[in-house]
């Protein structure tokens, strides 16, 4: 079934079934209005822990809490009808042991109505992915550059070049075998992304990977130009809304200061108008 013909939001198995078919479209969202804008166009919407950097001004995703994810997950859920919602498990909510991961994943899904959770890690997280899937929690995996691990990766570097390629490929195989229904490939070389996509049986979702992946995802604030602190190489700016918004704010400030706003059409008369006439 094509993305435009569906009558209801897809679930994890629907996403899995799109392997090798029409590319999957995804963006991040953190608010109800933004979710509503992308609902007609995305197959799934990710409530990403990137919210910490994009909306809360943090310098990494490590400070994002369960409470933050739940708050933004609930907001996004209110804006979606046709797209599936996936939600990130924040740092330190799943790494310690599978049982803790299950408790936190179940809470995220119950309180936000998400259709799946996403967690970072490959071989080392396979046992946890399997534990969650066996207990009814659909899992989207995330390998390559994993932002929650920047302190051990040495920053936001490309992963999988040269002698690292085998390790990233092993991660892809491990999460697929453990039962993940899809996997995000972040900031890895194009050839490696194509090899993983051809080899594993679940959809690959690229972000800084390859057009040959089974789908793509971007941070929406990056692609529309709202977030301007930095611009990754893999981001295409489809709009520059940040400068437009700043120009509008500057114009508003000038009109307030010269008292041209509010004008007559923005204020209310002392007497109520006759019936049928707007005041």
Question: How would you sum up this structure, described in words?
Answer:
With 279 residues, the chain is an alpha/beta fold. Helix content is 37%, strand content 14%. The protein has eleven helices and eight strands. It has helices at 12-16, 32-38, 51-54, 66-78, 98-112, 126-134, 150-153, 165-178, 190-199, 220-223, 241-257; strands spanning 24-28, 44-47, 84-88, 116-120, 139-144, 182-186, 204-207, 215-218. Strands 1-2-3-4-5-6-7-8 form an eight-stranded parallel beta barrel, surrounded by five helices. β6, α9 (190-199) and β7 form a beta-alpha-beta unit. α4 (66-78) runs parallel beside α5 and α5 crosses α6. The longest helix is centred in the last third of the chain and has 17 residues, at 241-257. The radius of gyration is 22 Å and the shape is elongated. The chain starts with 11 loop residues before the first helix and ends in a 22-residue tail after the last helix. Mean pLDDT is 95; it is low at 1-6.
Short description:
With 279 residues, the protein is of the alpha/beta class. 37% of the residues lie in helices and 14% in strands. The chain is built from 11 helices and 8 strands.
Q: Which strand-content bin applies to the residues? A: 5-15%
Largest sheet: 8 strands, parallel, barrel
Shape: elongated
Order of H and E elements: HEHEHHEHEHEHHEHEEHH
Low-confidence segments, ≥5 residues, pLDDT <50?
1-6
Mean pLDDT: 95
Helix content: 25-40%
* Structural class label: alpha/beta
- Biggest sheet strand line-up: 1-2-3-4-5-6-7-8
Task: Tell me the distance between the termini.
Answer: 51 Å
Tally of helical segments: 11
Radius of gyration: 22 Å
């Amino acid at each position: 079934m094509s993305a435009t013909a569906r009558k209801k939001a897809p679930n994890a198995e629907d996403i899995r079934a799109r392997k090798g078919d029409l590319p999957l479209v995804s963006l991040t969202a953190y608010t109800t209005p933004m979710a509503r804008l992308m609902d007609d166009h995305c197959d799934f919407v990710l409530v990403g822990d990137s919210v910490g950097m994009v909306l809360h001004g943090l310098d990494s995703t490590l400070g994002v809490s369960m409470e933050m994810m739940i708050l933004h997950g609930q907001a996004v859920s209110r804006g979606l009808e046709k797209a599936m919602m996936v939600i990130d498990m924040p740092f330190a909510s799943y790494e310690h042991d599978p049982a803790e991961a299950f408790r936190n994943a179940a809470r995220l899904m119950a309180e936000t109505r998400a259709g799946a959770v996403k967690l970072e890690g490959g071989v080392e997280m396979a046992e946890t992915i399997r534990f969650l899937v066996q207990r009814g929690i659909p899992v989207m995996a995330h390998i390559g550059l994993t932002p929650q691990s920047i302190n051990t990766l040495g920053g936001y570097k490309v992963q999988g070049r040269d002698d690292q390629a085998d390790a990233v490929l092993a991660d892809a195989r491990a999460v697929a075998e453990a039962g993940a229904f899809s996997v995000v490939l972040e900031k890895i070389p194009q050839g490696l992304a194509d090899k993983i996509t051809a080899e594993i049986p679940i959809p690959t979702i690229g972000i800084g990977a390859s057009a040959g992946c089974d789908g793509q995802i971007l941070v929406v604030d990056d692609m529309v130009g709202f977030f301007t602190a930095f611009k990754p190489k893999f981001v295409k700016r489809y709009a520059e809304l940040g400068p437009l918004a700043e120009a509008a704010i500057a114009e508003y400030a000038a009109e307030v200061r010269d008292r041209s706003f509010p004008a007559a059409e923005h204020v209310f008369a002392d007497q109520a108008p006759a019936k049928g006439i707007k005041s």
